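Morning F.,

Quick status update on the modeling queue. The single chain you submitted on Monday has been processed. Sequence for confirmation:
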Amino acid sequence: MGRSIQILAVVVCASLLVPAAASGGAAHRKDAVKPLVIGHRGASGYRPEHTLAAYELAARMGADYVEPDLVSTKDHVLVARHENEISGTTDVDERPRFAARKTTKVIDGVPLTGWFTEDFTLAELRTLRVKERLPQLRQRNTIYDGRYRMPTLDGVIWLVTRLSRELGRPLGIYAETKHPSYFRSIGLPLEDPLVEALRAGKLDKRGSRVFIQSFEVGNLRALRSRIDVPLVQLLGGGSQRPADDPRTYAELATPAGLATIAAYADGVGPSKDYIVPRDAAGTSLTPTSFVHDAHAAGLQVHPYTFRNENSFLPLELRRGSDPNSWGRSIAEYEQFFGLGVDGVFSDYPDTAIEAREGRSAGAGRTPPQRDDVRPRHDATGGQPWARKNPVDVP
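C-alpha coordinates below.
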Protein backbone atom coordinates (compact mmCIF):
# COMPACT_ATOMS: atom_id res chain seq x y z
CA MET A 1 0.00 0.00 0.00
CA GLY A 2 3.04 2.27 0.15
CA ARG A 3 2.45 3.72 -3.30
CA SER A 4 -1.14 4.56 -2.36
CA ILE A 5 0.01 7.16 0.18
CA GLN A 6 1.45 9.55 -2.39
CA ILE A 7 -1.20 8.81 -5.00
CA LEU A 8 -4.15 9.29 -2.72
CA ALA A 9 -2.74 12.53 -1.34
CA VAL A 10 -2.82 14.00 -4.83
CA VAL A 11 -6.43 12.93 -5.32
CA VAL A 12 -7.54 14.55 -2.07
CA CYS A 13 -5.86 17.82 -3.07
CA ALA A 14 -7.77 17.76 -6.33
CA SER A 15 -11.00 17.08 -4.46
CA LEU A 16 -10.71 20.37 -2.62
CA LEU A 17 -11.45 22.14 -5.89
CA VAL A 18 -14.90 20.54 -6.10
CA PRO A 19 -18.14 21.41 -4.29
CA ALA A 20 -19.66 18.83 -2.00
CA ALA A 21 -20.63 16.41 -4.75
CA ALA A 22 -19.69 13.54 -2.48
CA SER A 23 -21.29 14.90 0.66
CA GLY A 24 -24.46 13.75 2.36
CA GLY A 25 -27.78 13.51 0.53
CA ALA A 26 -29.42 16.80 1.42
CA ALA A 27 -26.30 18.89 0.92
CA HIS A 28 -25.57 17.25 -2.41
CA ARG A 29 -29.00 17.94 -3.83
CA LYS A 30 -28.82 21.54 -2.71
CA ASP A 31 -25.40 22.34 -4.10
CA ALA A 32 -24.93 20.14 -7.16
CA VAL A 33 -26.11 21.33 -10.56
CA LYS A 34 -26.04 17.99 -12.32
CA PRO A 35 -26.51 14.36 -11.37
CA LEU A 36 -23.33 12.31 -11.15
CA VAL A 37 -22.37 9.97 -13.97
CA ILE A 38 -20.66 6.86 -12.62
CA GLY A 39 -18.79 4.68 -15.10
CA HIS A 40 -20.19 1.26 -14.16
CA ARG A 41 -17.11 -0.97 -14.05
CA GLY A 42 -15.65 1.69 -16.33
CA ALA A 43 -17.03 2.25 -19.82
CA SER A 44 -17.95 -1.42 -19.86
CA GLY A 45 -20.15 -1.10 -22.92
CA TYR A 46 -17.01 -0.39 -24.97
CA ARG A 47 -14.20 -2.29 -23.21
CA PRO A 48 -13.98 -5.43 -21.07
CA GLU A 49 -15.18 -4.42 -17.61
CA HIS A 50 -12.88 -3.64 -14.68
CA THR A 51 -9.83 -2.89 -16.79
CA LEU A 52 -7.75 0.27 -16.69
CA ALA A 53 -8.77 0.74 -20.32
CA ALA A 54 -12.47 0.75 -19.35
CA TYR A 55 -11.89 3.16 -16.46
CA GLU A 56 -9.81 5.50 -18.60
CA LEU A 57 -12.35 5.56 -21.39
CA ALA A 58 -15.13 6.35 -18.91
CA ALA A 59 -13.15 9.30 -17.59
CA ARG A 60 -12.39 10.62 -21.06
CA MET A 61 -16.06 10.37 -21.93
CA GLY A 62 -16.84 12.65 -19.00
CA ALA A 63 -17.74 10.32 -16.12
CA ASP A 64 -17.45 11.88 -12.68
CA TYR A 65 -16.58 8.59 -10.97
CA VAL A 66 -15.35 5.15 -12.00
CA GLU A 67 -16.56 2.07 -10.17
CA PRO A 68 -14.16 -0.71 -9.19
CA ASP A 69 -15.69 -3.78 -7.51
CA LEU A 70 -13.16 -5.02 -4.96
CA VAL A 71 -12.28 -8.60 -4.02
CA SER A 72 -9.20 -10.01 -2.31
CA THR A 73 -6.29 -12.15 -3.43
CA LYS A 74 -4.77 -14.94 -1.34
CA ASP A 75 -2.12 -12.49 -0.13
CA HIS A 76 -4.78 -9.90 0.85
CA VAL A 77 -4.40 -7.43 -2.00
CA LEU A 78 -7.55 -5.78 -3.33
CA VAL A 79 -8.16 -6.29 -7.04
CA ALA A 80 -11.00 -5.14 -9.29
CA ARG A 81 -13.37 -7.92 -10.40
CA HIS A 82 -17.14 -8.11 -10.60
CA GLU A 83 -16.97 -11.42 -8.73
CA ASN A 84 -14.28 -13.42 -6.98
CA GLU A 85 -15.05 -16.27 -9.42
CA ILE A 86 -13.03 -15.28 -12.48
CA SER A 87 -13.58 -17.87 -15.22
CA GLY A 88 -16.06 -15.58 -16.99
CA THR A 89 -13.77 -12.56 -17.08
CA THR A 90 -10.25 -13.99 -17.49
CA ASP A 91 -8.47 -16.71 -19.44
CA VAL A 92 -7.77 -18.77 -16.31
CA ASP A 93 -9.52 -21.82 -17.82
CA GLU A 94 -6.92 -21.82 -20.60
CA ARG A 95 -3.98 -22.02 -18.19
CA PRO A 96 -2.99 -25.67 -17.52
CA ARG A 97 -0.89 -24.69 -14.51
CA PHE A 98 -4.05 -23.55 -12.72
CA ALA A 99 -6.37 -26.41 -13.75
CA ALA A 100 -6.21 -27.99 -10.29
CA ARG A 101 -7.45 -24.75 -8.68
CA LYS A 102 -10.92 -25.23 -10.13
CA THR A 103 -13.30 -25.87 -7.26
CA THR A 104 -16.84 -25.42 -5.97
CA LYS A 105 -17.62 -22.96 -3.18
CA VAL A 106 -20.72 -21.53 -1.58
CA ILE A 107 -20.69 -17.73 -1.77
CA ASP A 108 -23.52 -15.99 0.08
CA GLY A 109 -25.55 -19.20 -0.05
CA VAL A 110 -25.02 -19.81 -3.77
CA PRO A 111 -22.87 -22.75 -5.01
CA LEU A 112 -20.34 -21.63 -7.62
CA THR A 113 -17.81 -23.68 -9.56
CA GLY A 114 -14.72 -22.13 -11.06
CA TRP A 115 -11.56 -20.31 -10.07
CA PHE A 116 -11.55 -17.79 -7.22
CA THR A 117 -9.31 -14.79 -6.57
CA GLU A 118 -8.74 -15.79 -2.95
CA ASP A 119 -6.95 -18.95 -4.14
CA PHE A 120 -4.36 -16.98 -6.14
CA THR A 121 -1.58 -14.63 -5.13
CA LEU A 122 -1.43 -11.28 -6.84
CA ALA A 123 1.61 -12.41 -8.81
CA GLU A 124 -0.36 -15.39 -10.13
CA LEU A 125 -3.40 -13.31 -11.04
CA ARG A 126 -1.18 -10.88 -12.93
CA THR A 127 -0.22 -13.66 -15.32
CA LEU A 128 -3.85 -13.88 -16.49
CA ARG A 129 -5.49 -11.74 -19.15
CA VAL A 130 -8.97 -10.27 -19.05
CA LYS A 131 -11.79 -11.00 -21.50
CA GLU A 132 -15.27 -9.63 -22.22
CA ARG A 133 -17.87 -10.95 -19.75
CA LEU A 134 -20.82 -10.66 -22.18
CA PRO A 135 -19.39 -11.76 -25.56
CA GLN A 136 -22.77 -12.56 -27.10
CA LEU A 137 -24.15 -9.15 -26.21
CA ARG A 138 -21.01 -7.09 -26.81
CA GLN A 139 -19.18 -8.97 -29.52
CA ARG A 140 -17.13 -5.91 -30.50
CA ASN A 141 -15.53 -5.86 -27.07
CA THR A 142 -14.04 -9.29 -27.70
CA ILE A 143 -11.38 -7.75 -29.94
CA TYR A 144 -9.78 -6.57 -26.69
CA ASP A 145 -9.71 -10.03 -25.12
CA GLY A 146 -6.22 -10.84 -23.87
CA ARG A 147 -4.93 -7.26 -23.97
CA TYR A 148 -5.37 -6.22 -20.35
CA ARG A 149 -4.50 -7.46 -16.91
CA MET A 150 -6.58 -7.45 -13.75
CA PRO A 151 -5.99 -4.10 -12.00
CA THR A 152 -5.31 -3.66 -8.32
CA LEU A 153 -6.86 -0.92 -6.20
CA ASP A 154 -3.48 0.81 -6.30
CA GLY A 155 -3.59 0.69 -10.09
CA VAL A 156 -7.03 2.28 -10.17
CA ILE A 157 -5.89 5.05 -7.82
CA TRP A 158 -2.80 5.62 -9.97
CA LEU A 159 -4.94 5.97 -13.08
CA VAL A 160 -7.52 8.26 -11.46
CA THR A 161 -4.76 10.51 -10.16
CA ARG A 162 -3.10 10.77 -13.57
CA LEU A 163 -6.35 11.45 -15.37
CA SER A 164 -7.42 14.07 -12.82
CA ARG A 165 -4.24 15.98 -13.64
CA GLU A 166 -4.45 15.45 -17.38
CA LEU A 167 -8.14 16.28 -17.75
CA GLY A 168 -7.99 19.24 -15.39
CA ARG A 169 -10.89 18.03 -13.26
CA PRO A 170 -11.16 15.72 -10.27
CA LEU A 171 -12.18 12.16 -11.03
CA GLY A 172 -13.57 10.05 -8.21
CA ILE A 173 -13.56 6.40 -7.15
CA TYR A 174 -16.87 4.70 -6.33
CA ALA A 175 -15.73 1.41 -4.80
CA GLU A 176 -17.88 -1.61 -4.02
CA THR A 177 -16.91 -4.20 -1.44
CA LYS A 178 -17.97 -7.57 -2.89
CA HIS A 179 -19.11 -10.35 -0.55
CA PRO A 180 -17.56 -8.77 2.56
CA SER A 181 -19.01 -11.33 5.01
CA TYR A 182 -17.60 -14.19 2.97
CA PHE A 183 -14.14 -12.65 2.74
CA ARG A 184 -14.17 -11.91 6.47
CA SER A 185 -15.08 -15.54 7.15
CA ILE A 186 -11.94 -16.77 5.39
CA GLY A 187 -9.64 -14.29 7.11
CA LEU A 188 -9.42 -11.75 4.27
CA PRO A 189 -11.61 -8.82 5.37
CA LEU A 190 -11.98 -6.24 2.61
CA GLU A 191 -12.43 -3.29 4.93
CA ASP A 192 -8.95 -3.34 6.47
CA PRO A 193 -6.85 -2.77 3.31
CA LEU A 194 -9.47 -0.37 1.95
CA VAL A 195 -9.52 1.79 5.08
CA GLU A 196 -5.72 1.63 5.29
CA ALA A 197 -5.37 3.04 1.77
CA LEU A 198 -7.94 5.78 2.33
CA ARG A 199 -6.52 6.83 5.67
CA ALA A 200 -2.94 6.83 4.38
CA GLY A 201 -3.96 9.28 1.67
CA LYS A 202 -6.18 11.35 3.98
CA LEU A 203 -9.15 10.26 1.92
CA ASP A 204 -11.18 9.11 4.90
CA LYS A 205 -12.91 12.48 5.38
CA ARG A 206 -15.90 14.29 3.89
CA GLY A 207 -15.11 16.06 0.66
CA SER A 208 -12.96 13.21 -0.63
CA ARG A 209 -13.83 12.01 -4.14
CA VAL A 210 -14.70 8.57 -2.82
CA PHE A 211 -17.90 6.59 -2.27
CA ILE A 212 -18.02 3.10 -0.76
CA GLN A 213 -20.99 0.87 -1.53
CA SER A 214 -22.14 -2.57 -0.48
CA PHE A 215 -25.10 -4.94 -0.77
CA GLU A 216 -24.48 -5.85 2.86
CA VAL A 217 -25.43 -3.85 5.94
CA GLY A 218 -22.96 -4.83 8.63
CA ASN A 219 -19.81 -3.81 6.83
CA LEU A 220 -21.23 -0.38 6.05
CA ARG A 221 -22.13 0.06 9.73
CA ALA A 222 -18.57 -0.95 10.64
CA LEU A 223 -17.08 1.40 8.07
CA ARG A 224 -19.18 4.27 9.41
CA SER A 225 -17.27 4.12 12.68
CA ARG A 226 -13.89 3.88 10.97
CA ILE A 227 -13.95 6.45 8.17
CA ASP A 228 -16.09 9.40 7.14
CA VAL A 229 -16.47 9.05 3.40
CA PRO A 230 -19.98 8.75 1.93
CA LEU A 231 -21.40 5.24 2.16
CA VAL A 232 -24.09 3.80 -0.10
CA GLN A 233 -26.44 0.93 0.66
CA LEU A 234 -27.07 -1.09 -2.48
CA LEU A 235 -30.47 -2.72 -2.91
CA GLY A 236 -30.80 -6.02 -4.74
CA GLY A 237 -34.00 -7.79 -5.80
CA GLY A 238 -36.93 -7.05 -3.55
CA SER A 239 -37.33 -10.63 -2.29
CA GLN A 240 -33.60 -11.06 -1.72
CA ARG A 241 -31.80 -10.35 1.55
CA PRO A 242 -28.36 -8.99 2.41
CA ALA A 243 -25.99 -11.77 3.40
CA ASP A 244 -25.84 -10.36 6.93
CA ASP A 245 -29.37 -9.04 7.59
CA PRO A 246 -32.75 -10.78 7.96
CA ARG A 247 -34.72 -8.04 6.21
CA THR A 248 -35.48 -8.17 2.51
CA TYR A 249 -34.30 -5.40 0.24
CA ALA A 250 -37.97 -4.52 -0.32
CA GLU A 251 -38.27 -3.90 3.41
CA LEU A 252 -35.15 -1.75 3.37
CA ALA A 253 -36.68 0.28 0.52
CA THR A 254 -39.73 1.37 2.55
CA PRO A 255 -39.74 4.79 4.26
CA ALA A 256 -39.08 3.05 7.58
CA GLY A 257 -36.27 0.99 6.08
CA LEU A 258 -34.71 4.03 4.42
CA ALA A 259 -34.73 5.81 7.78
CA THR A 260 -32.66 2.98 9.28
CA ILE A 261 -30.24 3.16 6.35
CA ALA A 262 -29.80 6.88 6.93
CA ALA A 263 -28.36 6.09 10.36
CA TYR A 264 -25.20 4.66 8.79
CA ALA A 265 -25.20 5.57 5.07
CA ASP A 266 -25.44 8.67 2.92
CA GLY A 267 -27.14 7.18 -0.09
CA VAL A 268 -28.88 4.22 -1.65
CA GLY A 269 -28.13 2.41 -4.88
CA PRO A 270 -31.37 0.77 -6.00
CA SER A 271 -31.94 -1.17 -9.18
CA LYS A 272 -33.97 0.94 -11.59
CA ASP A 273 -37.21 -0.92 -10.96
CA TYR A 274 -37.46 0.46 -7.43
CA ILE A 275 -38.04 3.82 -9.10
CA VAL A 276 -39.78 2.89 -12.36
CA PRO A 277 -41.18 -0.65 -12.14
CA ARG A 278 -42.15 -2.69 -15.19
CA ASP A 279 -45.00 -5.07 -15.85
CA ALA A 280 -44.61 -8.69 -16.99
CA ALA A 281 -44.23 -7.58 -20.62
CA GLY A 282 -41.46 -5.12 -19.72
CA THR A 283 -43.50 -1.94 -20.12
CA SER A 284 -42.77 0.88 -17.68
CA LEU A 285 -45.34 1.45 -14.95
CA THR A 286 -46.06 4.61 -12.97
CA PRO A 287 -42.96 5.79 -11.06
CA THR A 288 -42.93 5.04 -7.35
CA SER A 289 -42.27 7.42 -4.47
CA PHE A 290 -38.83 5.89 -3.85
CA VAL A 291 -36.78 8.97 -4.81
CA HIS A 292 -38.99 11.23 -2.70
CA ASP A 293 -38.86 8.82 0.24
CA ALA A 294 -35.07 8.50 0.08
CA HIS A 295 -34.59 12.25 -0.15
CA ALA A 296 -36.94 12.71 2.79
CA ALA A 297 -34.61 10.44 4.77
CA GLY A 298 -31.61 12.56 3.71
CA LEU A 299 -30.22 9.98 1.28
CA GLN A 300 -28.82 10.41 -2.20
CA VAL A 301 -30.21 8.10 -4.89
CA HIS A 302 -27.87 6.48 -7.44
CA PRO A 303 -29.79 3.82 -9.43
CA TYR A 304 -28.18 1.05 -11.50
CA THR A 305 -27.61 0.03 -14.29
CA PHE A 306 -28.24 2.11 -17.41
CA ARG A 307 -27.39 0.38 -20.67
CA ASN A 308 -28.13 1.09 -24.32
CA GLU A 309 -29.17 -2.38 -25.47
CA ASN A 310 -32.83 -3.25 -26.04
CA SER A 311 -32.60 -6.18 -23.64
CA PHE A 312 -32.08 -3.78 -20.72
CA LEU A 313 -34.62 -1.12 -21.76
CA PRO A 314 -38.35 -0.97 -21.07
CA LEU A 315 -40.50 -2.25 -23.88
CA GLU A 316 -41.63 1.19 -25.05
CA LEU A 317 -38.03 2.34 -25.56
CA ARG A 318 -36.80 -0.62 -27.59
CA ARG A 319 -36.03 -0.31 -31.29
CA GLY A 320 -36.56 -3.37 -33.45
CA SER A 321 -36.58 -6.97 -32.32
CA ASP A 322 -32.84 -7.59 -31.84
CA PRO A 323 -32.15 -7.62 -28.08
CA ASN A 324 -28.55 -6.55 -28.71
CA SER A 325 -29.47 -3.47 -30.77
CA TRP A 326 -29.54 -0.08 -29.14
CA GLY A 327 -32.86 1.45 -28.20
CA ARG A 328 -33.97 4.90 -27.03
CA SER A 329 -31.77 4.88 -23.96
CA ILE A 330 -31.46 8.66 -23.72
CA ALA A 331 -35.19 8.83 -23.02
CA GLU A 332 -34.71 6.53 -20.04
CA TYR A 333 -31.99 8.76 -18.59
CA GLU A 334 -34.18 11.79 -19.11
CA GLN A 335 -37.03 10.18 -17.21
CA PHE A 336 -34.82 9.31 -14.23
CA PHE A 337 -33.14 12.71 -14.21
CA GLY A 338 -36.59 14.26 -14.25
CA LEU A 339 -37.56 12.14 -11.24
CA GLY A 340 -34.70 13.70 -9.27
CA VAL A 341 -32.04 11.00 -8.99
CA ASP A 342 -28.64 12.25 -7.81
CA GLY A 343 -26.53 10.05 -10.05
CA VAL A 344 -26.62 7.05 -12.38
CA PHE A 345 -24.47 3.98 -12.93
CA SER A 346 -23.92 3.57 -16.66
CA ASP A 347 -22.10 1.12 -18.92
CA TYR A 348 -22.14 3.90 -21.52
CA PRO A 349 -20.96 7.11 -19.82
CA ASP A 350 -21.02 9.05 -23.09
CA THR A 351 -24.74 8.37 -23.47
CA ALA A 352 -25.36 9.43 -19.87
CA ILE A 353 -23.40 12.66 -20.42
CA GLU A 354 -25.34 13.33 -23.62
CA ALA A 355 -28.64 12.95 -21.76
CA ARG A 356 -27.45 15.04 -18.83
CA GLU A 357 -26.14 17.86 -20.98
CA GLY A 358 -29.26 17.82 -23.10
CA ARG A 359 -31.35 18.16 -19.97
CA SER A 360 -29.26 21.15 -18.87
CA ALA A 361 -29.74 22.69 -22.30
CA GLY A 362 -33.48 22.15 -22.00
CA ALA A 363 -33.42 24.12 -18.77
CA GLY A 364 -32.42 27.24 -20.65
CA ARG A 365 -28.85 26.73 -21.85
CA THR A 366 -27.99 26.65 -25.52
CA PRO A 367 -27.24 23.05 -26.51
CA PRO A 368 -23.84 22.47 -28.12
CA GLN A 369 -23.93 21.97 -31.87
CA ARG A 370 -22.80 18.58 -33.07
CA ASP A 371 -19.64 19.94 -34.67
CA ASP A 372 -18.73 21.76 -31.44
CA VAL A 373 -18.35 18.65 -29.33
CA ARG A 374 -15.68 15.97 -29.41
CA PRO A 375 -16.67 12.59 -30.83
CA ARG A 376 -17.80 10.23 -28.10
CA HIS A 377 -17.50 6.87 -29.79
CA ASP A 378 -16.24 5.53 -33.07
CA ALA A 379 -18.24 2.57 -34.31
CA THR A 380 -14.99 0.74 -34.99
CA GLY A 381 -14.28 0.77 -31.25
CA GLY A 382 -11.48 3.35 -31.41
CA GLN A 383 -11.47 6.68 -29.61
CA PRO A 384 -9.45 9.60 -30.98
CA TRP A 385 -8.54 10.71 -27.46
CA ALA A 386 -7.44 7.27 -26.28
CA ARG A 387 -4.06 6.72 -24.67
CA LYS A 388 -2.02 3.58 -24.31
CA ASN A 389 -3.28 1.63 -21.35
CA PRO A 390 -0.60 1.16 -18.67
CA VAL A 391 -1.11 -2.53 -17.94
CA ASP A 392 1.95 -2.80 -15.72
CA VAL A 393 1.08 -0.23 -13.05
CA PRO A 394 0.58 -1.54 -9.50
